[in-house]
């Protein structure tokens, strides 16, 4: 019997690059932009960011995975609190968010990310599924991936089964044809497993696995995927 083709799907943040330095840089770019273009708010946004986000999510729990929408509203509300009119805040928040989002795409890959993707893309169709707002094209990986989905597009995020169902539908494949690779035990591993999808847990710090059902594979370096697939 002909064996169906295998597809590999990847999480992005903390799987293909470390997210912490990217976010530190993006937050600083945003504050610098506000200091220059919205001085009544300026650097004060850094202290307002966390409580504003918490309030927005509390008022709109369905927005948990709509990270771009929440970020824009955070900036807008902070601008209004600083004394800008609603119209001014709407315009400035769009511009500030654009500066932030551009910086958020400036990632530094793990040392073996590109070489591993280059080799795997020659062997298998590659997919991406993320809860964040990284853009495959803007980070420079569009040549390797056939499809990329994020939680904001889908309306739900991992580990919700609908996120994986959408990815399967877009690629027109069955769970048996997919292996998902990611760093988050809950979102990436347990989320995929509940759909009958095989998994690779990217665990560079070698923390112990805490759940009953083991991932199909476990790796500490992305290049180890080349020994598995």
TrEMBL record:
It comes from the Bacteria. Pfam families: Hydrolase. The keyword Flavoprotein does not apply. GO terms for molecular function: hydrolase activity. The keyword Transport does not apply. One of its GO terms (biological process) is riboflavin biosynthetic process. Its cofactor is Mg(2+). PANTHER family: 5-AMINO-6-(5-PHOSPHO-D-RIBITYLAMINO)URACIL PHOSPHATASE YIGB, N-ACYLNEURAMINATE-9-PHOSPHATASE. This is HAD-IA family hydrolase. It comes from Thiopseudomonas alkaliphila.
